[in-house]
Structure formats: structure tokens, C-alpha cells
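ASSEMBLY PREDICTION REQUEST
Request ID: AP-0331
Submitted by: J.K., bench scientist
Number of chains: three
Total residues: 1043
Priority: normal
Notes: Please return the full assembly, not individual chains.
Input sequences:
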Amino acid sequence: MKLRNQVWKENVTGYLFILPQLLLFLIFIVYPILEGMRLSLYKIQYKQETFVGFQNYSTLFHDPVFFKSIFNTVVFVVFIVILTVGFALFVSSAVFDKNAKYVSFIRGSYYIPVMVSMVVMSMVWGFLLNPANGLISFTAREMHFSTFNLLGNKNTVLPVVIFVTFATNVGQAIILYIASMIGVPKDLFEAAEVDGASRLRVIFQILIPLVKPTTIYISIINIIAVLKIFVVIQMLTGGGPNNATVTMMYYLYNNAFKYNQLGVASAVGVIMFIITLMLSVPQLRAMFKEK
Amino acid sequence: MQPVKPVKKREVYDVVSNTVIIFFAILNLFPLYWLFTSSLKNSSDVIKMPPDWWPKSFTFANYNEVFQNQPALRWTFNSLYVAGLSTVLVVVSSAMAAYAFSKLRFKGRNVIFIMFVSSMMVPKEVMIVPLFRLTQQLGLVNSLYGMIWPNVAIAFGVFLLKGFFDSAPDALREAARIDGAGEVRTFLQVILPIVKPGIGALFILNFVQVWNDYLWQLVVGQEKNSKTLMVGIATLMQDLNPNFAYKMAGATVAAIPMLLIFILFQQYFTRGISIGAVKE
Amino acid sequence: MFNKRKRLSAICTFLLVIAVLAGCSSNSAGTDTSQNNGTAASGKKKVDISLWLTPQWKGVLDATEPDADYDSFFKYAADKFAKQYSKYDVKVNVQVVAGDQRDELLNVNLNGGTPPDIFFESVFAMGDYAHRGALVPLNDIVDDAAKKDIEQGYWDNVTFGNNKDIYFYPFSHNPGTLVYNADMFKAAGLETFVGGENEIKTWTMDEYNTILKTLKEKLPKDKYPNAYPMALYALNNQGDTWNLAYLRSFGNSFFNANGNIVLNDDKGVKAAQWMKSIYDAGYTNPGAESVSSNDANAMFQNQQLAVSFTNSILYNNAKADMNAGKSPKFDVRLANIPSVTGNPLTFTYVVGASVFKTGDATKTEVAKDFVQFFSSDPELVQASKNSVPVRTSVVNELKDQYPLFAAYGANASHMFSFTGNVPGYSELRQVLYPELQAMYVGEKSPEQAVKDYESKGNAVIQKAKDSSVISK
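STATUS: Completed
Returned structure:
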């Protein structure tokens, strides 16, 4: 009797401790997800909702701009994540064993844009790339390049967005890598040195395999972050030229708030939800296996 | 952080790569340098090509204009309030939940935890339509609390802190219980102090994340006075104002608070951010 | 450990200080809302209504007033209204919203059931809300005196649907023209093309092409570095009316009698080809596809463009900026958008207030009374001089002071209706600029862009016709 009472009490205590988080979770995550799925099946005109089945989804799959947004989003995710991981590995493997002051200088210089935020960095790059007044456009014109408006050329605008996002965010990956490389036991390097291994070999054969968990972590957070890429598109290109840089998030936002197509926007949201869930399953599985 | 082999001759690769890295580091900071200096010029000097690399006409008039035309201080306050209060609430709610998941046994514990963690990866922006309708129904549009609550619901903190609670020895808790401490007292006075580094890391990670939560704040804060700094400054770019330097000054104003916080507390920041990741 | 704790407390103190500092300043901003709770001394029932507007003119009557801002007029009008209003104790919350955020804000608030009571804006941008059934007809607040004082043409502009209901109370109108920098013209040796100070100069198409060419070749680079002949932009839908006008400049009628787009003919294609050709020839600012009308306007004010777009409000604001020393001072004059027919192309934005359906009868009543008040009060309607008054009485009273009124009046016969009064106009605007972008960057030929615009645009119009609640 006493034991059962104790179990009951521990149960209640447990629930009380998780209650605030659980309530918020139900209200602000579970409910919106379910409601989003419901809304994606409705046509919404202000306060009036009409059930239309899968019509919103079929609208989406007949809209070339939607496919463009998927394509662009995939391109951004792939290139930005590869660039970020690659460059952050390059930087941190080169500096992690140097003088502490030097390390914090490098770390700081790459991290400052992260702190300054994507919003401000997009504005700055917008000023620099402005076709009429921007410093970059001016330089390109002076050097007689054929395209001076990098934002107006279909072939350059994607690389520009990729570069700006990458340059702004790479600092975070660098900080994480440096921290994890400093944590690698020193005797491993000493052993390699005895063998006469070059620095490059040490990096590729010891360092990179050892920081693999960090690599996975950085890849995951960056994939999720780039998947919802929005700010740089809104501030820098407005999705143009001719929808060349529309992303899924930008497409969702425009449908929801500009074109007042809440049903269609919800359908995009549901599709994005499924994509993120699928992407995170391997990571989650790995996480739970570890424990 | 002593150099591993200070005496050894530098390899060519090492020298080349570090030169490249320093070059890019400086290049990476150039846009910001250019922003700051331009914001101190008058408008006609901003568009002068080739530019003055250092402002010849040194003026703070653009900043005056920003603070006169826009409630920029109010926006800064809003941003600090939203990021600060969200973070405090996240810490409280996550610490409680993480403690329960780590140390208490109750039915459904694992299922609920797995649910929390799986939701972590889904950005709230994908549910922006229903989330915004909910916010409207709750009457939280134009309210800073409308910007705060959805961020508190994200379970990342629970996940992060659980790792720290797991490494706190159970024996301590048992000892406290034997001394007659209740669950709440055990939590607050015995276990919580041990997970302080985790709380510090969560504080920093969450503060930065909410500070940059642009899209949601854009949607919730529609009135001029309920905008946050980032959103407010972004609307300023659409201003019909012939003074280009005014917009640069606005962007600088948006950059300064976090920059200050970072420069003053760099060590603390980098440590917090890496602690957060290493624990994963 | 100690060091760490010290740092932490330093962070907290720092944040706290900033918060307190900012909090103090925010308190002063918050006081005007806190008055809401007070009960009215007069015993009248308190009613709060909201009025939104997009930036129009600064100041109550004039931008030279101290602290002149976009909301000054309505704050003053609300005060005056509340003092003489006998039914309720009214408070009007005035909010200025950016033009490019208008539809986002309205959609969001309409969906949430919280639209503003009154919206003051150009009618063309708001017609869709009438079609969607979101607005209240204003027939009952328009009296015969107003009908007589405001010409029928303006009433046509604000009348929608099968029932011929009035949805906007015309306040002023805002003719769109070109604007040019006469100093730059003179510097390039184009004195003969410069019109009078109070004239809206009409150039033929050939003359205009000559002007652009000469500006490109002769404009002294030392005096005007980094400057271009003409503004061209297509980043978003802002300022698209001028692009629509250019598309008509070779004689295309744009809409047919059924309200469908008929741009895809010889004349329409020629116009598009002309836009592309002046862009390619470097007669315009570079990168039109990523330049917004705001950018172009700022460039003109900084003497980087010789010819740009303007309307009467922008024109007055630009002159005010010059006089206030906010932008370089130069000789600025107006011109018409040229066309091959020789007749100028002109259009105007009728600006006025509309009342949204909020479901609250009291608020709607008060909102309508307020709209009637500021749209007909003899003192307040004087503010319409900041653009061009719709009231004949005001024009007559002020025409000596404002010689441009006569020039605008002379243009009236060349006026075209750029919206064609079609439903779905807001969405239609979203279709044009991507096609122009595609054309400028060379992704589509002008022929293709025109063709695609016509078919996409007509699909939008058809969809909107089907769902319009006031016209079938």
C-alpha cells in the first residue's frame, strides 16, 4: 500500500515537473501542426472556411514557382552545408593548436557576422551589391566584367545568396570545431609526429574522424536552418529575378501573408514539416542509440 | 591552449592555410567596416565612387535622424525583453522538465521525451499559419508575449539540460532525500547548482536564437511600437528617404547591441556555445 | 569560478541597464495608450476607432510645420472631430503603414477579424477589398453638396459593383508624371527641351529618345559622376503604374471592353521592346530588375538620375527634402510620359478613406462620421493641396498659390484608367514585375514576356471575377 502510494506520488511529482513544458508543447507545437494539416484541406476566405479536399496540394503541384522553390531550397541546403562544413574544418584544423590569442582573433572575426545577424548582414550585402550604387557593382564595372548586377543574373544570384548565407553563418561551425578539436587528446598528435606524418595527414586521418560527432551536429543544425532560409531572400532579392531565388519558406510566407492563400500556405507548411521530420529521423535514431 | 609543438618548423601547408584564413577573416569583416564608416558620412559621399575609405565628412546626423524618426530605443528594448524573458522562461521550464526526465520515474516518461525531442528539429516557421491564427485568437498579436511563448515551447532546452542532469550523480539526490529535503528543495538546492554550466550555455544559445527570430517577430509585431529591433530596422530600409547614409546608420544601430555583448563577453560566449554542442 | 560569476553578473547588469534605459523612453511612448482607461468627463460613451494610412503628406496642412509627420493631419483631424462630436467620446488611433506592407497587414487582420475601422489610401490599391466584401458602402455620408463639389470623374473612380455603391470618399488626387532634373538637362545641352517651372512638359517619343541619348553621351561626368538618364525599376510592384504607362506608350489600350488584358499585340510588343532597348542601351540605371521605385526615387534626389517618376505628393516631398537640406538642391520640373501618338499619357491616383466591416455597429457609425467630417470640413480639406484637391471649391480657392493645379487640370483629358477597374487588381500587380525582370535579364524576349503577362494576368482577373461578391 505504502509502495503504491509512493509510486503514485513519484508519478505526480514527475508530471508536475514537466507540466509547464508539456502544456506549452501541446499548445504551441502539437496543436499548430494538427491545425495546419486541417487548414491545408480548406479554402479560407477571411472567417469563412470551405472544405476542398486536396485542392490546395494540386494547386501547388501545378505551380512551376513551387517546384522552383523546392529546387532552390535543395540547392541552398546542399551547397551551404557543404561549404560551411568544409571551410569550417579547414579553418579550425589550421588554427586550433595555435597561440590562444590568435585562436580567439580568428574565432571572433568569423563569429562577429553571426552575432550581427543575418538581417543586418543581408542589408550590408544589399548595399554593396546595389546595381547602381553598390561598391561591388562599381568595381565589376570598372574591371569591365560583363555582369555587374550579380543579383539580376540568373547564373550569379544563387551563388551570391549561397555565399552571403555561408559567410554570415560559418562562424558558428568554426567555434564548434575549434572547441571539439582542442578537446582531442594531445598524445595522438605526438604519436603521429613520431611517425613523421605531415600535417595534412594528421588532419585527415586523426582530426577529421575524431570530430565526426561535431560534423554531424553542424550538418544537422545547418540543414534545418537553411531549409527555412527566408531573411536573406527577402532582404536581398525579393525572390527575383523572375522567381529565380524563391525558396519554400519565402513561397509559404508570400502565400500566407501577401496573396492571402492560407490554405495553400498551410499545405506548403505540411510538406515542409514532413521533409524536416524525414531529415531528422536518422539523427534522432543515432541519438537514441547512443544513449 | 599552448601550441602543441612550438619548436617544430612550420610546414608550408600550415603557413599557406593560415595566411588564407587571416585574409578571409579580414575580408569577412570588411562589409561591417564599410557599413560603420558609411553610416558616418553624408548621403552624397556614400554613393561616391570610388569611395572614401575613411569618412571625410564625419557626421552623426544620420544617427540623430534614425532615433528621431524611429522608436529605435523602444525597438531595442522590445528585442531585449523578448529575448531575455523567453530565455528565462525557457531555462525555468526546461530545467524542471529535464530534471524530471532525468531523475524521476513516471509513466510515459520515455514516450513524452521522445515526442519532445522529435519536435525539436521542426522549425516553428513551417506552422506559421496556424501558429499565427492561434496567436490572434489569444489576442497576442502586437504583443511581445506573442513573440515569446512559441519560443518557450521549443524543447531544445529540455534535451540539452537532460544531458547535464544525467551526469549529476544520483547519490547526491538520495543523500538529500535522506536529509529530509523535498523534491523541490532537492532540485533547487542540490542538483541545480551542478548543472550551472548547462544553464549558462542554454541561456546564451537561446538568447541569440530568439534575438534573431526575425520571421516570427515580423509577423507578430505589426504596430510600429511593438516591433523588435531587427524587424523595425528592416522596415526602415523601405522608407522613402533620399539619405542613403540614414539606412546605413539604421543597420548599424541594429548591429550594435549584440556586437557589444559579444565583444565584452567573448570567452563566455564561445564557451557557452561549444558546451551546448559538445553535450549533444 | 569567481571570474565566471563576475562575468555573468556583469552581463546581467549590462542587460538590465539597457532595459531600464530603453524602458524609460518607452514609457513616454506608452502614455498615450494608457489614457484609454480613463472615463470620459462628459459622460459620453467611449469609443476607440483605428485609422491606418500609407505615407501621404507630412504635417497637418504643410510639411513645413514643426514636427510634421505622416500622421499629423489625422491626429489633428481626430482632435477637432472629438471636440465637436456629440454622440460619443471618440479616440482615434492613427497608424502609418508602409505601402508595401499594406496588403500583408490587411490580410492578416481581416483573417483575424481585426481590420482597422478606416483606411486612407489610394483607391486603386484598395478596390479589391471592396470586391471581396470587406468594405462598407459610404453612400449615406455623401451629401449633395459634396457630389456637386467633386467632379463625377472622381466618383466613378470610387464606385464599385453592380449596385454602384460608393466605397471611398475622395479626398485628393495624385497625378502621376515624370520628373526631371533641369540642371542636368542644361549641363547636357538640352536647354530647348526644358519646360517652364509650372508647366508639365510634353515631349514626343522622338524627342524623348533624343533626350535620353544626349543625356547618356553629353552629361558631364565630372559634375555628375555615376549618373544615368532615366529611372527604370522592376524589383517589386511598387511604382508599377509607370511601367504600365510605358507599356501603353505605343498606343496599346491594355484592357478591352470585357475587362481583359489585351497587351499582346503589335503596339504592346513594341512598347516592351522599347523598354528593353533603352535598358540595353544604358539609357537607364543599371540592374532595373533589382532596383525598386524607392531606390530610383532616392537616386533621382541624389542627382544620379536625370528623369524619374513622380506623383504630386512625391514631388512635393522631394522639394521639401531639398528645402530642409536633406537632399541636394537642384532645379526640378515635371514632364508627361511620352507616347507615339504625341498625346501625353497621364493617370491619377484618387486618394480617399474607406471604412472596413468590423461587425461593430457603433464603431462603423463613428468611423463613417469621422470620414465624412475630415473629407468635408472646410479647414481640413485644404490639406488636399499637398497633392491635388478633388474639390472644385478648394482648387478655385488655392489655384493662384499653386499654379501647377492648372497644369494638372489641363492634363485631365489625356487621363487613362490604369486599373481598368478590374477585380483582382492587387494580385494582378504581382504578375507584371517578374515578367519585366525576366525581360530585362534576357531570360525572355519582350514578345514572350508580354504574351506570358497577358495570359497569367487574364487568369488572375478571371479568378477574381468568379469570387467577387459585389459584381457578377
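REVIEWER COMMENTS: Chain C has 17 helices and 13 strands.
SIGN-OFF: pending second reviewer
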